[in-house]
Amino acid sequence: MESRVLKPMLAVYVVAFILFLYGPFFVLGILSFQQGPDGGPQFPITEWSTYWYRQIFGLTPPSRIAPLPVGEALIRSLILAFMTMVTSTVLGVMSAQAFRRKFRGSGVVFYLIVLGMMVPGVLTGLGTSLLANNVFDITRHWYTTAFATHVAYTFPFAFLVMLAILNRFDGSVEEAAWSLGVSPWKTFRKVTFPLIFPGVLSAMLFAFTLSFDEFPRSLFAAGGTEDQTLPLAIYGTFSVEIHPNIFAFGVLTTLFSFALLSVYGILMGLSVRRARKLAMQEEIA
Amino acid sequence: MSDVSVEAKREGPSWLILPGIIWMALFMVVPIAMICYVSFWTQTTFNISSTPTLASWKQFFASDTYTGALWTTVRIWLIVLATTFIIGYPTALFVGLFVKSKTLSTVLLVVCVIPFWTSFLIRVLAWRPMLGKEGAINIILLKLHIITHPIEVLLFTELSVIIGMSQIYCVFMVGPIAFMLGRIDRNIIEAARDLGAGFGRIFWKIIFPLSLPGVVVGAIFVSVMVLGEFATSGALSGRKVNLLGNIIVTQVGSLKWAMASVTGVILTVVMGMVIAAFLRIVDLKQEL
User: Fold this and answer.
1) Residue B129 is nearest to which of A28, A107, A128, comparing CB atoms?
2) pTM
3) B26 neighbourhood in chain A, CB within 8 Å
């Protein structure tokens, strides 16, 4: 009855909502094929071309518009995201493992960790650079101060993912291993870890993408131009006139993210399939 | 014997929590404490010394620029909170409650999340060719003869900041709400319907109250992100809209660490009050 009217209305609304989410990207995608180097970052398209894509890869003759300074920044961002991913996943797994037992002050510790994803990057970034500049008198770098703030941001996500996984974890398999005399570390490696691996993958994906795209923390906690990460390089173009090369770059990074997401999907699929195969073997045995 | 040792090994030793605590203390708690401390330091033109003073605090509250930024931040936060809720709730309702197939609702959620794999800054920037005087919206409206002159208030105004933030953050509302709606026992709704309740009544008496934890979680996400914003307001308002975050960035840029710290403390206080208020409504740990 009312759902006969309401449901189609909501469906239409959801389509409009998705258009709202994607609208700017369509425009961005279209404008990335603007003619270069004279075409501006707006309509109309004077002529369709792949000039701005070629410019990113340095395939165009030099023009008055400087290419985006992304090469080294991209490598820095990838390394930083990788370091952050490993550190925060390890911390996340350890902390979530500790949370399986009630301990004194666990409520406080929970909020201490979760606060890391709530405190705005401006604040942790500012505080860290204050400490580095005025107390310890150390130079800020992307791989030191910025790295520390990145982990303080992504570790809570890894922690929550692992907590959710371990909450649904059946501890009896571990107990079986222990009572057979297997050491705790070996039990973790051989029994627990393979079982929580899908969660670990999700935690890693979270940490990597969050760090790769992290901007306010890096802005404060990374040093000068020789320390620019990718978002900082993009931010640098904000203050000057923007050109379609930034749009072309946006399209490319989106494609890169899709590639990353597909790798994650494949790994996830493989691990699920492996788990299923193991379960089947158990049934047969 | 094995019972005892299994009990002892059960769920790992608690020293495992230490590295996490230490990291968060060193790189989150200490930095924020440092901001509070430095806000009382003495600022000279090029230098800063640890002689305690209230000068920067007085300067903050005496200046219209700074207090104005505080009110702008609160106003934009409230508006964006409202728009993301209004825009997001119907979508969450459809995804979480009306879609019967689990696959379809997952697909819809993934479709909503995909834009997040584009760099945040590029997502912000994408609004410029959309909203500009010669932007896509104006061109479409002109072509459709809805307007005769391009609308100029769309870009580089407070409105453009609100539009941009609403789009960027509305998904954070959709996710948690859809999750809570998906958990509602369908039998309750069926029972209410059998007893003759109309949809409006079912919605206000059952669906909405049960989705409230999702709304609160979504509101926390949106609030936290909007309050700490400075990139969207900088890029889409042409530096006309100054949030507390923008003040911090410009002050640090001109090495006015003390003033940046005062602004940081005020931002922390606002944030703390907002989060505490929301957590009063819902216990986050229980909803996990």
Assistant:
1) A28
2) 0.86
3) 148
